[in-house]
Amino acid sequence: MAETDERGVHTRRGFLRTAVTGMTVLSAAALLEACGAAPTPAGSKASSGSAAAGTDTGKEIDVLRVSLPGSLSNLYPGQESGILNYYVAGICMEGLVGVDTTGKIVPALASSVERTSPTTYVYRLRPDARFHDGTPVTADDVLHSIEMARDAKVSPATAAYWANLKKAEKTGDAEVTLTAKAADVAFAWLPSNADALWIAPKTAWENAKSGFGTPQALPVGTGPYKVTGFVPDSYVEFSRVDTWHGTRPKIAKIRFEFVPDENTRLLAWKAGKADMALNVPLAQSRQWEGAAGTRVVYAPDRSYAGLTFNTKAAPFDDVHVRRAVAHAVNREAIVGKILRGHGQVATALSTPEQFGGLWTPQEATRRLAAVPQYAYDLEKAKQEVAQSKVPNGFSASLSYPNTGPHLGTAAQAFAADLKKIGVTIEVKELPIEQWLAELNGFPPLSYMWYFNTTGDPGELASWFLGEGNPAKYANDTITATMAKATAEADPAKRADLLIEAQTAQAADLAYLPLWWGQAATAFGSAIGVRDYTSYTLLADWPQQVYAAK
Fold it and tell me: What whole-number distance in Å separates Cα of residue 313 and Cα of residue 294?
């Protein structure tokens, strides 16, 4: 998909709100050792990939209390696009299509979709679709919502995603047709609430003078829950509705509590003030595992963490400088010690789980490992500095969001190694909003923390290797390869092209992949979740939650 420069800042996958404030910062030399990866203690309540618990009692849950590691100031992802915004908004607002727990596109407000040509998609609306106020969903509401999604003022976080849309039109009383400018496999994801469309009544958009998604203009949608209370930076509460076209969920109310301080959040959890906690910080994972009646589930979240080099800014416009940094980063130690093994060394931009339906994660990992790598080797790093235009070393800064403390810990660790080769990296923590704003200016060196929300293996690569990418990187051969991948309908051929493009990029090293992440989620003993995958929280996840015995 063609993107604008703002995508790097406003992407909903660009950050995960996990905050540990007041954490002890060790000396750089001691960081890796202090975070040593010990085996999971015997009897620890930790598991990988399964959130099922006990027996489903079939009982209703009056209130599900969910603890979030950060805060939301707007509930509309088009305006504020953190990954948590997607998890929260998805239970209230739908797109024409959605995603299921396996990562497949499924009907949502559209009962069916037909691709009548490589660039044309016809959506037929559900006859029983109703908004929370009881009014029927019309084609006009859908078209107006698309118009709002494309409006950079209304939806600054997602407007650029619609660059490939040629036209959206009403082609029947309950039918909408979208036409792309160019054939693109990723276009099918566009009108989903896992990507860039949240449908609301036309009147709701028109009446939202203070901004759609604010407490003064609460979002109105068609999902199983409606917003009944929202205090920015404090909480948001949802109540079950009778207007939803799907199966009635067992949960009557869902209350999300915003708790930015992780020590406070852990204490609240131990006091029994939440049933489910998203994004448990890995630095505290053993403390969470040891809490009474708690199980912590670890699962790949299809996130990418890596360094971005602005190839137009000194000194990173010199490939020798970029190689020096790459050879000075001990990625294996970061994953094994700082992430405590809950992650995977990233060898490419695409994550293994993105190739689901084509390859297993293990097979995808093997194939992605063929992309050329830069092994941890301080001698080679020194040699690269010596060959660069800054042979005596240089200084640079690297910021990370306060919502990702492990990013800071990792940066302090490799900054200590870079110091040994004459390179000084000033690592600084910034509030998430300030960090995102800084990315707007294309700093010479930056972190990227990106969460894939669709099942498209080219999701991140299409941005990083396309127009307006955060590295200001251009390579005609790669551009041509990505153009072929965009139009290629055969999944296997498309995957090969994506890996070919990423292999070519590795030689220029505009990006240094660090790790593919895992999310840690805590569940109380009375709660179970069926079909828990990296897509569950993007799907109709309250349907999967049950009262356990």
Answer: 48
